[in-house]
Predict the 3D structure of the following.
Amino acid sequence: MPDIGKYLWPKSVAVVGASSDVHGLRGRILEIILSHPFAGKVYPVSRSASDVQGLKAYPSVDALPEPADMAILIVPAQYIPAELERCGKAGVKAAAILSSGFAEEGDAGKRMQEDIATIARRYDMAVSGPNSEGFSNMAAALCANFSPASDKSAGPLIPLRPVGRGQVSVISQSGGIGFAFVDRARPRNLKFRYVVTTGNEAVLEIADFVDYMLDEGETDVFLLLTEAVKSPEKFKRAAEKALRAGKPLIIGKIGQSKPGSRAVASHTAALAGSTAAYRAVFDRYGLIEGRDFDEMLDLAVGFLASGDRMPAGRRVGICTASGGAGIWMADACAAAGLEVPILDAATRKALDAYVPSYGTTQNPVDSTAQGVQKLGYAEFARLVARSPSVDSVIVVITARRSAFLEADLPKLKDLARETEKPVFMWTYTLPAERTVEILNEAGYPLFTTAHGCAGTLQKMADYRAMRALILHQVEAAAPAPDRSNTSAVLVAAPGVICEYRARPLLAVYGIGSESAGQLVHSGDEAAAAAQAISGLVALKVQSADIPHKTEAGAVMLNLGGAERVRAGYEQVLDAVRRHAPAAYIDGVLVQAMAPPGREVILGIHSDPTWGLMLMVGIGGVVVEALADVALAPVPLDRASALALIGRLKSAQLLGRFRGNPPADVGALADLMVKLSNFATDHAERISAIDLNPVIVHAEHNGVSVVDALIVKRDDRSAEGGSAAG
Amino acid sequence: MPDIGKYLWPKSVAVVGASSDVHGLRGRILEIILSHPFAGKVYPVSRSASDVQGLKAYPSVDALPEPADMAILIVPAQYIPAELERCGKAGVKAAAILSSGFAEEGDAGKRMQEDIATIARRYDMAVSGPNSEGFSNMAAALCANFSPASDKSAGPLIPLRPVGRGQVSVISQSGGIGFAFVDRARPRNLKFRYVVTTGNEAVLEIADFVDYMLDEGETDVFLLLTEAVKSPEKFKRAAEKALRAGKPLIIGKIGQSKPGSRAVASHTAALAGSTAAYRAVFDRYGLIEGRDFDEMLDLAVGFLASGDRMPAGRRVGICTASGGAGIWMADACAAAGLEVPILDAATRKALDAYVPSYGTTQNPVDSTAQGVQKLGYAEFARLVARSPSVDSVIVVITARRSAFLEADLPKLKDLARETEKPVFMWTYTLPAERTVEILNEAGYPLFTTAHGCAGTLQKMADYRAMRALILHQVEAAAPAPDRSNTSAVLVAAPGVICEYRARPLLAVYGIGSESAGQLVHSGDEAAAAAQAISGLVALKVQSADIPHKTEAGAVMLNLGGAERVRAGYEQVLDAVRRHAPAAYIDGVLVQAMAPPGREVILGIHSDPTWGLMLMVGIGGVVVEALADVALAPVPLDRASALALIGRLKSAQLLGRFRGNPPADVGALADLMVKLSNFATDHAERISAIDLNPVIVHAEHNGVSVVDALIVKRDDRSAEGGSAAG
């Protein structure tokens, strides 16, 4: 394993391709490094100059007075493999490749990128890029990049009055975006530790740097930006490690839209992958997704300022002196999914002493300007934070002038020290610089958008809850099914395993009943089978060549009476013969109609990046009309299955509905766990499983798996996609 | 009608309650007025001082050397009515009442507020407030308020280099929020004309000021903020006038959430009203809703900078030199509902000359840093704007340094002059002040959030399309139904008009068939009626006492055969007798089952603020599970009805679906227009109408109204709410 410490904390740096022309990137990077008080040695390497920006230059990396710990390579792409090889031979242990023109430029570039990986492996070097923009180590004052955000004139590397006590690190595939975080965070006084850009990730990926920084223990909050995750298992390991350590990973996933993912493909030659699958993985590991700079920085500010003090729930108390601004904040809280409950009587009574009659103590508590003059923001917030009705407090202020807050500073500090509940500040005017400092000094995050403030609180409450859920997961003590036998049957089965063959396989894992109905081969047999069943029956043609039965007319439902069953038998076979004349037909399944209940779709499919995912959706029409499905990587436990169901917009269809009792959601969750276990155990053979529909009966009455289909993985290709029954 | 010109453009202002103590509000307001170069006369009125802040003070408003054009009243609430009366008698034509403690404070306050309205009417005075924060007239340099945003030190009233050529006015019920717009807009260089705060709106409402400013013709974009609209008809008139004039109304509606509307009630003692109804009215009149300061200011910047040049469609071309930032913008565009199509071959060929091989000309066009160095932003944007594939262009820049843009300035100005398509700029770093100026000078809006930039373009495209739709509306040439007879029947009918009585009334307007089925009074009659119908029948108990038939068990569907119909007759009557023993039953309706199709819910209900609204939703389950309904005020024309259907999330259920042909959406729209005409004609008698369900058949096969119910307005109270069949 290469040593990322050599990359981030080098004692000596070679800049290969360094130039004295500071208008070009090759000159700018050296200029920026030299402008900061980096204590290590810097060696310009230049084939043409013996002096670069006042430093002695060396003709080659192997001509340095000592092997440099790391090298920055900024020469044209075609020279990079040879240059990296030279670094390896010379004992350089790390390299940042800034040049473009690799995998994003076609096959030749792709091969060069593979060469880079091979060379790095050979010499056990920590290599980032190509197509990266370098990195900054703020603590070491090493800015090995050419971003304007690293200009000396842009401001100090470490803010004088940082928000909170912790540090934040940025790890971004995109160089421009990575350093823009630093630029945009300046008015927020975030203390950055590292900014690392990873580019095409030929060797080191975002997860490698996360892993290093978690071990180091100096980064408290991560801002990640990814176009595509290359090594999903590595990513999941790092994510779980961060979750256990309680270090939030705030992540931006770019390329989620159609034009965006098209651009990712041409930008770093990576597959953007399914947005839904990425979301599912983020949810599973407690990553917090942000959709833009502001949302992600708001989250970083919130987490840094709050430290371990995260909201225990979603109930917020709002303190305001402006009625209108307080109402707008209440709307923002509700939109974010927070609650703004009416406060308890004791708290309201305590507030009454300060709030004039034209204000209100409900919540939002509108003290009016007069009330806050008497109370001060600190005392106001303290009274509300004390209420047992709330888990956190938002104080609406106008931060245009600092004088009033300045006078309140000692009390604000006391409150920040003592409160168990996060207290956030939102200013509806633009803040004066001094106001931000005062609040940061006192220990409060300051937000300028109501939605950013409310959204951050909500996501912090979610993070806390999600973390508790995941850390307390217990392995379901399922009876160990006979895996090896199932596996052998799977190997022998055809590519499309239709219902009558799939049922016994799934039943081993407790999914559905082993035999539901009878396979028949004539109209008379069908009629006889139907007669043995009380009530109406379904007929389903069984054929590995017909995975999409409904489209092929291969299903008839609700048949009663020998005559209709016999006629139905001929009808489904006729339809199938017209639709797929060459299909080999195993027979027709005669099955009792399932007792009534809520219709659910359960499935497994394979995502090109993340592998097998479990999918759940309610009601055929709702799923189709609104694409309302929820995804999770397998395996998943019961609590996660219940959480997944709860994430459906149409989840209330499973509750008390149109006079029906609630559906047996527990049984549905159990079924999901079993299906996820089946998929996990046989992942290497499964491309897709459809249980469509599953009927969820009323509480305590369980579920009926009405149809089942398994599509095996095509060994000749990494096939994805879902099948439909 | 009072003269708002006297309010906004007074030649002389009396400050009643003025004080020399500039730490109090009564001193601050005078201090602020005097600090700006207002050319008119200012008269302090004080009962205790003869000199206030160096000006001669007068003991009363009737002791001034001349009648002041307007008075600012900032004395305790209980003195306000007498003071306003004195103003009226003295010939003062306008007044701003800043004091709090009126309708928001209970019944006594409410009565005082009514007194204010009476006095204002008596003297025909233009009165704003109470509980307002005054106003600013930037052109007159009159800042009659105590907001920190009006401090001389906060910056010039009119920016040196404004964005665009137009002016924006703020009209806000909330004082704090109203002036915060000015504060937060400072870095954006918006040229404000007026900021007016209206408080409790005892007399003048937001719509009155909009109307005045439209007549004046100097305001190009409006930023409105409302808690509750008091006079809906006045509001609608002003909104339509603005739409015809092409002056966008950007509106924030606060109090949309449960806690928010609770706070509105206690803040200005107004009903926040139904959010959905507000949205429907905004949609109908082309108002553009913004959810926070930033979104509203982004919209104002976009409209001001673009003038009449609005995007003709939703297709955007993205120019970027940072791959990652371009992708993020593409995601933001897709999220906003914009399209980012691959560019045409000719445009891509023209770009190829500048874009290196590791960039891309697809869209986003990633020129890489190298490409943009060659091209410059102006030429880059010009090439993309020329593409027939796009309606607008977004240029992704880094505005941290201004030098590069400065060099490009002449070309940028040329492009801004010549282009027919809006060109927006988004900076992913924070902009230098000089960059904003350069871009504003050249005529470009600059955005700092990708979502704000994309969302503004999308809403501008929507505004253009919506305006065209509304301005080209033609009155449907419906055959004038016999209104007076219908009206007479309505008057005579019971409060709940069940189906067999409602059908003939609705049929006059072409809604459903006059007679669908037969009213019977015995099982035998029912069986006979069923026999006369080929196919299955429905039975429905008809009773004015049972509006909710399904809950009462008063409906049976799909009955066939005399025996089952006879038994069904007894069954529904039994159920009804158990459910509502005292109900008077008119009979049982025997009806043919409707041919199959897509199930739709159509209804009319009464909103407490906006009156009768038409509601449409698709599919019983979808409506109930996801509350996916769309609302519009009545009347509405065919194009608006079609647009309303299109707004449903589940609209695709009416398209080609599960092998079914598309539904007859045109016939549904026609039915909606007819229902809206019925409701409009008889608005004073209607509380609710339910057509639930309507079955929409396949294209060209029309609709079947399967059930109908009219609930009359209860004359004793302003009843709202919907009924269900």
Observations:
- Chain B is about 40% helix and 20% strand.
